[in-house]
């Protein structure tokens, strides 16, 4: 089987503390596959959630790609693989610490993914880039948007954003700060697939690990005009369950 192309920052952050270990922006694997993306009409980047090692990251890209192909989308789907398999994330007593380290790493990765988008757009300005994020992947996307928004020339640089079981806060799309950033950086639309039945987000909300996750009950307040949301009923919090609810793309 051909390797799945991915932008990676594995080993750049400490899985116990979230401390930055390497100052590199990212590495591409396999590099030659990224050359093939130059000049294409578009491609999609899939960003996984917490508790995914590099094998898990690849599995999520395959799930996304297979589903999108079924929906008639035949452009490349690549991955963004980051240090989300934080120490102790699977143990209840360490869950809160592991999640906060994961959130910290996800925030820092906004710089890494944002830098990739800037670099790629320089070599292929007309290529549309779409971002899909599951769970903690929503934080990576939000931080990427924040990073890109520092430069006016990045306005509209991301074609569209898709959140699944998002762990960012429910006031993000309507907040003065983030709402405006999303509106500026995303060219077409931001779609949030939310599920009030999501057991992981329910638990995170109840335990106050994530207060009011956007993926649980949708947005509060008056979201920006490019934001839309869809109520879905996945079997559980896993990306496989969410992507199965997807009926149209892009």
From TrEMBL:
GO terms for cellular component: membrane. The keyword Transcription does not apply. It holds the Pfam family DUF726. InterPro entries: AB_hydrolase_fold (IPR029058), DUF726 (IPR007941). SUPFAM superfamilies: alpha/beta-Hydrolases (SSF53474). The keyword Transmembrane helix applies. Keywords: Membrane, Transmembrane, Transmembrane helix. Gene3D superfamilies: alpha/beta hydrolase. It is a multi-pass membrane protein. Its main location: membrane. It is found in: Membrane. PANTHER family: TRANSMEMBRANE AND COILED-COIL DOMAIN-CONTAINING PROTEIN 4 (PTHR17920:SF3), TRANSMEMBRANE AND COILED-COIL DOMAIN-CONTAINING PROTEIN 4 TMCO4 (PTHR17920). This is DUF726 domain-containing protein. It comes from Candidatus Nitrosopumilus koreensis AR1.
